[in-house]
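Marked as duplicate of an earlier ticket. Keeping the data here for the record.
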Amino acid sequence: MTCQRRRCSWYFPSDPTEQLLPLVRHTKTQYLANGTLHLIPLTDANNVIATLGIWHQGEALPPGVEEVAALVTEELKMRDLIGQMPLQQVKLKDSPVVIVMWEANPALPVCFISDNAQSLLGIDVMAVRAGAARFEDWLDEDDVKAFLRLLNAHARGARQSELDYRLKGQNGKVHWVRQHSVVQYDINGNVTAIYGFLLEQTHRKQLELQIKATRDRLSMVMDASGMGVADWDLAQDQLLMSPQCVAMLGVGREELEPCLHSWQQFIHPADINNVDESLKKHLTGLSADFHCEYRILLHNGEVRWLESHGRVVEFGSDGQPLRMLFMHQDISARKYQEKARERQQSLLNLIHQAQSIFLEEQDLAAACESIFEPLLALAESQFGFISEVHYSEEAKPFMRVKTISDISWDAPSRALYKKHVQNGLEFHNMETLFGQVILTAKAVISNNVRRDPNSGGTPKGHPPLDSFLGLPICYQGELLGLVGLANRSEGYSEDEITFLNPLIDTLGMLMHARLVEKARCEAEAELALLASTDTLTGLLNRRAFIRALNEVIAEHQPYTLVLMDLDHFKQINDTYGHSTGDKVLQHFAQLLRQHAKSTDVLARIGGEEFVWLLEGKDGMANYPLLEALRLAVAQQPFIQDGKAVTLTVSLGSTFLVGADDNGDEALNRADAALYQAKRQGRNCLVAA
């Protein structure tokens, strides 16, 4: 607060470098670099006697200004009155000014005190005049030292001064007093007396203390909230920043140029366009204020989030913005918490997605493929893969990729990626970063891949890798696969491992479930094979053949049904034994397989009775093939211990016609044809 007149000035707080304010006839407002200045005229009988300046950080006048202006006006009037009248002529009884005079000697006794000191300040005037009490006995203990120092300075020749202090009246009331003091000299220039003119200003002081308390509270709020203030002079491109604002940038004030670029140079490259656009919208009047959340990149590589509010507070006569105020707040903690929550939710979504697709499609590759790109985005990584771990016949581990980033950059790499899409990729070289994951079953972090001794194994021409994270996929301690991620701008850490662990555990459960399901399917297939296979020959048994025959009849397909019986097989068992007989049956089954096509159905439906269901447009179309089988059996005897066991076979065939309702009818016709072949002497083919 400043009050200035034509010939003298009065400051609070004192600032001898401040220039005098001009006299104004109407209240005016000026916007300064660090606040707002209101110029208020002080009048006496409609004459302007001084200008009162109120500076603060808001725009509107603070409360209590009118009371302060009235008190200042009254004090200035009293000073003029005192200066114009000799002391002995002043009528002080009704005056608000108390006059005290001290002798200029080391004891500093009071030689005069006006009567109104009793009524205005509660001082026992008679006791002071009689010497029974000293004036300073009524001073607050904390103010005595400064008061005596001032009087001693006057006694040594100081011409005039001002001092604020507290007096405790007889009724216990505390009075704030402003003392204006001057000295009296003798003809030799020696100080003979000190005059003190005391003005009671308790109400005014309370207002000042309230203003100061409000200012202090505002400062505390700004400090506690971490807010920083900046003032931008657009015409001069001069940006003044508060200490809090400078601290947010992580530099010293001496390192910053006082211009807008000093702030803009810290804005993250990914956010600079958004900030510039928001600022331009406000400066051109398209938005009521400037508000933006963005990242700043400190010189040490640290990333912080700021929230900035701003508004133009001064315009030129042409309506162009001249001055803008900003408030900046570090919101890094809130942003990181928001990001952590978003990442956690995204991770849970990926886990749910992988589980759902695996359950719906029973396809691990599809589940991995569906979450792969979102996983790269979540892990802020440029490249990556998800793979299974398998073992060769020599029990050596290798990696079989389930999904991988498409990093095709030339013909060989495109062919490699195409191979992955069609047939899958396998990597057997374990002298790599992912090989270390497989060999140790532990996570591997490398934030300087180029200098890592295990960084080999990437194909020639592969995009450069700066950082790598390998995560083993395990289930109950068994290594089943791994996830590889590469090129995260901020590198990888143990925090990333902890964050991704729930997803890695889910992949481990899915891989284990796939292995269990695969084993179950293989077991079921094996059981089904055992249930439908003749254990001696490996051909279908009677039940499986009847089922296949009925399916063919139901589909009305052109097939030929052939019943076959080894001739005189009982004699072979009697002569050579049942063990040799079993081998003879296996020998015949092998000859049968050699003549049949992959689409044919072969079965053993009795002791030495076999059946052959083969495709054909009519019954005679397959005659040469059946005859070839009969001749092969007769010409290729079974050799047992160097002895040849001669075999022949009788065949009865029938063509499946549309009139057949089931396999029994066809089997009866083929059986009748087989009986006819045996009656004709065996070792022949008869068609029904």
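See parent ticket for discussion. Confidence is low (pLDDT under 50) at residues 1-14, 85-90.
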